[in-house]
Amino acid sequence: MQPQALPGFRDFYPADMALRDRIVRTWRRVAARYGFEEYDGPPLEPLELYTAKSGEEIVGQLYSFVDKGGRDVSLRPEMTPTLARMVAARANGLKKPIRWFSIPQLFRYERQQRGRLREHFQLNCDLIGEPGHLADAEIVALAIDAVRAFGLGSADIRVRLSDRRLLTALLEAVGVSPAQVPLVYQVFDKIRRTPEDVSVTRLSGAGLPGPTIDRLLGIVRARTWSELDGLGAGLDRALAQGDPLRRTFEALQALGFGDYLDLDLGIVRGLAYYTGTVFELFDARGELRAISGGGRYDDLLRALGGVDLPALGFGMGDVVLGELLRDRGLAPDSVSSIDVFLAAITQDDLPHLLGLARELRDAGARVEFALAPQAVGKQLKLADARGARLALVVGPDDRGRGEVMLKDLREKTQESIPRDAVRDRVARILGDELSS
RNA sequence: GUGGUUGUAGCUCAAUCGGUUAGAGCGCCGGACUGUGGCUCCGGAGGUUGCGGGUUCGAUCCCCGUCAGCCACCCCA
Fold first, then answer.
1. pLDDT at A55 over 60
2. A312 CA to B25 C1', in Å?
3. Which nucleotides of strand B lie within 7 A of protein CB?
4. Is the C or the N end of chain A the one with fewer CB within 10 Å?
5. CATH of domain A340-435
6. What is the predicted ipTM?
7. Where are the beta strands (DSSP E) in A48-115?
């Protein structure tokens, strides 16, 4: 048995690379539309960067080890601590609000499953220095556009939005004690795939009385603001905590993304540092894991980097998105690897052909030719398999006339043209394809 | 980390009750085809049946272990 890639790590064959490349390029393009600048940091970091303040959940899954210098290090499981360090180091000199994005390869040591590997690429977009609801709307809008740009619409994608401030206030208002909050979060997180009686049993097992449980179920099931407002008396003060989220909804509707949004207070992001808006993107059929998730973390930069700046952001991995694109037939078809194939009839034609290759490559064309003597038919077969638009056939007869045979493999036409005119003709036919 | 389930050619799969030399399609290579591509026809390469052990006259098939994939749990970048 040949050595394989480590569990959870991927080999990218050209077809896989084409998809990954499309994803990454599309992300860059969309982030740029929102005025975001790209940054990056080290893939390997000191272990303490993650054990210090980051979510406790992540620590157990760190891909960490001791390096040859005896340092405790970890492959980065998330980008936020690195971002916090970088922003903190130059916080005074950076114009706010900061709009930065990165597409790091992230790692975690955990048993893999579909859509969940030990390594993935993740679009990270963060907006730092703005506490207002328009920043929240911008981030959510960017997350939506980052999948919309692949051709996915509101029929394919749903966004579920919640707010920690609102949820916390509601739980307190209905009588959930701080000690009971973690369990309530757990139950909320699983509410969609758990029978109701199981959820009720777990909640009552934590000491919550029946009426409180009923109200909790009402909170987690509310999908509109009016449903939430109708949950009963005594919640007005708590519901007032929902104002920022309401305004975020309104802004997103004005931006034209209303069709994508669902209110869902059952969204429980694992990372403990979220302080306000939290959201997740899912495929509308509910077949896959979350495509993206994020939220507001106004206290994290102070805890992590020492600068007191409000911030929010989201992450979006390439694995689930890639699966969704494949499922929907939106992955790239077989790509053409060359523009022009050069075919020689005899060995004597080779110097002529190599000169053409140099000239066309200098002009920006993607050029290939047979590396060993072959029948012309065979060479053209290869040209076809490569997806070449054009083929140039050079033989003794052509050379005698100072010409070459230009074949358009797509149009199935051919004509003999002067050798000196090749470059211009090829450039004209390929047109825009050259500049890309 | 726990439990379940599946591993046969590069890919998708077949192989009777445990029985001879493990097959097919696609893909790949070559030929028909030494001045013209996609099609067609012909041929070829490619397998320690994931790996290791056990039962048996005989194991792709039964048993145990292990590794890997998938599913659920845990958790969720």
1. no
2. 53
3. 1-2, 28, 31-38, 50-51, 67-77
4. N
5. 3.40.50.800
6. 0.88
7. 63-66, 72-75, 98-102, 105-107
